[in-house]
Write a structure and sequence with these properties.
By secondary structure, the protein is mostly beta strands. The protein folds into 3 domains: about 300 residues, Tachylectin-2, Chain A; about 80 residues, Immunoglobulins (Immunoglobulin-like, Sandwich); about 110 residues, 60s Ribosomal Protein L30, Chain: A (2-Layer Sandwich), CATH 3.30.1330.60. The protein has 4 helices and 36 strands.
């Protein structure tokens, strides 16, 4: 029986459709030979990362952290360095005319290596701000530096990385935006026929996870994507490199990402993979057996990836609006399944609307949206809905947990760097949600609980879970929540919610939650 809702109704229409000409190739493969080796001429005792190469493979730029040769000296959190290849790589040199204070990361080359796109990121009070730049590039000298205009571009993380397709038509970015599933996600920006850039589009659930996706690289076929992630089952270290293939021109339909395997990935962190067309070697960054934090390594490779250098550039066409369907988004009590009243903030990179629940979306082409749902007496929740998810359901239910005494509520998006109590940037939003909850409920007392899986030393797991609880508790106290209102306890691996028999189940056991003691 179909239920008719009479509350908020909003029409979201997409007037611009992309008419893209794509050449689809057969499934591409990479084959690695031998063992990955460091490239001594490129490495230092400092941190190298965020590689970018030009199409000819004779220019390499990367970011180097806290090096005394940076423009801002050893206090500079990231500066662009470059090297040239004439049978071997030259010793890297710092580029000029870059910022001495901000984090600077290269994105990639356009116009046959004569222009470089890069990003600068700075902390503005409590939030990060990123600007994209375009500059002429000649032997490391940057000139004619201009802001690169990308509609609705907004990065809320200290991290931004990316790459440009070798034909200059697509820019892949890792950033945290309104449509991110958790923290950093991968996005695509398309270069238009007039040289302008489209708004960023999230690559969807097939690639992105609630954790972090870094350093996207699009191979010369414009279909093969290689990226780093710490959010996938079966990973060998903190960040592993994965490969997926784009299946259509939506940029949200991908083959299942495949781990690049033990010749590339280790117990350390691997990211920033690049493969110059026609090269016998692929390059990437690894923290394993390195001279510093991250070193550039190379591995011999053969590739079936075909070059895609079509001159045709996709263009936007304005089409008549056509109302095709309608979807409802409804709030429910997670325990009873009953509909509850509330409000939703419906947003993406082009809109930000505050509406009463339930919400009806009517459209000609439904966009990806982020839902921030709230209801009195319930824990608020953030949920990302892709156009594919919305298209597959008549009604989308967002389940909220009631704030009852004894309720155990998982802090879904609080993430820590592996093996540490250091909170990953972006997790603060979920903690702030709990802070606001306690401000709105001044008599509420909670117990924070930290859990790990059963891998490793039980004593160390217990200490780590306790340290993570203490980190969250200290954060909340710094935000004004009284000490006596927050207790905390680490459980290590002693309170699993799933068997520790698979990586997927172990990930469920690695969690932080809180229990409402009084309300």
């Amino acid at each position: 029986m179909k239920k008719i809702y009479s509350n908020s109704y909003i029409i979201i229409s997409a007037l611009l459709l992309i008419n893209a000409r794509i050449v689809h190739a057969q499934q591409e493969q990479l084959t690695f030979f031998g063992k990955a080796e460091p490239v001594p001429e490129l490495n230092s005792a400092y941190d190298e990362n965020f590689l970018a190469v030009d199409y000819a493979g004779d220019k390499l730029v990367f970011s180097r952290k806290y090096h005394p040769g940076n423009v801002g000296g050893s206090k500079n959190p990231g500066d662009i360095w470059f090297a040239l290849n004439d049978t071997i790589w030259s010793n890297p040199s710092p580029s000029t005319n870059v910022d001495a204070v901000q984090i600077v990361t290269p994105v990639g080359f356009v116009e046959k290596g004569t222009k470089l796109i890069y990003a600068t990121t700075r902390l503005n009070y409590t939030r990060y701000e990123t600007t994209l730049w375009s500059a002429g590039f000649s032997n490391g000298q940057l000139d004619n530096v201009q802001v690169l205009s990308v509609p609705y571009f907004s990065n809320q993380s200290a991290h931004l990385s990316g790459s440009l397709s070798f034909d200059g038509r697509y820019m892949l970015l890792s950033m945290e935006s309104r449509t991110s599933f958790g923290v950093e996600d991968l996005y695509v920006v398309q270069r238009m026929d007039d040289g302008s850039w489209s708004a960023p589009k999230n690559l969807g659930y097939a690639v992105n996870t609630p954790f972090q996706e870094y350093t996207p690289f699009l191979a010369a076929d414009n279909e093969t994507l290689i990226f780093a992630s710490n959010g996938r089952d079966g990973g060998m270290g903190s960040f592993d490199l994965y490969m997926a293939r784009r299946l259509d021109d939506t940029w949200q339909n991908w083959s299942p990402p495949v781990n690049l395997g033990q010749q590339i990935n280790t117990q350390g962190s691997e990211m920033s993979f690049v493969l110059p067309p026609g090269s016998d070697y692929a390059y990437f960054v690894s923290t394993t057996d390195s001279d510093g934090y991250g070193d550039v390594k190379k591995i011999r490779v053969t590739s079936q990836i075909k070059e895609n250098l079509e001159a045709d550039v996709p263009v936007l066409e304005v089409v008549a609006e056509k109302l095709l369907s309608q979807k409802w988004i409804v709030l429910r009590d997670s325990d009873t399944g009953l509909e509850i009243p509330g409000s939703m903030q419906v947003s993406n990179d082009t809109m930000n609307l505050q509406l009463d629940a339930p919400v009806s979306l009517a459209y000609d082409r439904l966009p990806d949206v982020r839902i921030d749902a709230a209801s009195p007496g319930y824990m608020g929740r953030q949920q990302f809905l892709t156009s594919a998810m919305l298209s597959s359901m008549d009604t989308v239910f967002v389940d909220l947990q009631a704030l009852r005494v004894g309720a155990t509520i998982k802090m879904e998006h609080v993430l820590f760097y592996q093996g540490t109590a250091n909170i990953i940037e972006g997790s603060e939003k979920e903690i702030e949600r709990v802070v606001l909850l306690m401000v709105e409920n001044p008599s509420m007392r909670i117990e924070l609980r930290g859990h790990t899986d059963n891998n490793g030393d039980p004593v160390l797991n217990y200490e780590l879970s306790k340290e993570r609880v203490d980190e969250i508790r200290n954060y909340m106290m710094a935000r004004g929540i009284a000490y006596k209102r927050i207790t905390g306890k680490g459980y290590g691996g002693n309170a699993p919610i799933a068997p520790n028999d698979t990586e997927e189940n172990r990930k469920l056991n690695r969690r932080v939650e809180f229990v409402i003691i009084s309300n």
